[in-house]
Amino acid sequence: MLVPGHGVVRGVLGRTRTATASREAWRGTHERNRRMKTRMTIGAVMMVAGLATAWQPGTGTAVTGSGGAVTTEQPPAPPVPPARQPSTFAWTDKELEKIGSMLAGSWQTTKPVPVSGGAPGETVNIVMQVAPVVVEGMPNTLYVETARADSIHAPFRQALFQLYTSKGKVRMRTLEFHRGADAQTPHMPALVGMAAIPQWFPKLTSSSVYGTLDLEVTAEGAGFKGKSPHPFPTSLGGAVEMTSEITLTKDTLTTIDRGFDADGKVVWGSSEGEQYQFARVPSPITVKDLGEGLLVLELKKGAEGKAIEERDRVSVQYTGWVGGDAKQFDSSRGRPQPFTFNQGQLIRGWNTGLIGYQKGSVVRLLIPPALAYGDRARGPIPANSDLYFEVEVLNVEAAPPAPTAGPEAPEQPQPTKAIPDSTSGK
Question: 10 Å Cβ neighbour count for 240?
Answer without folding.
Answer: 16
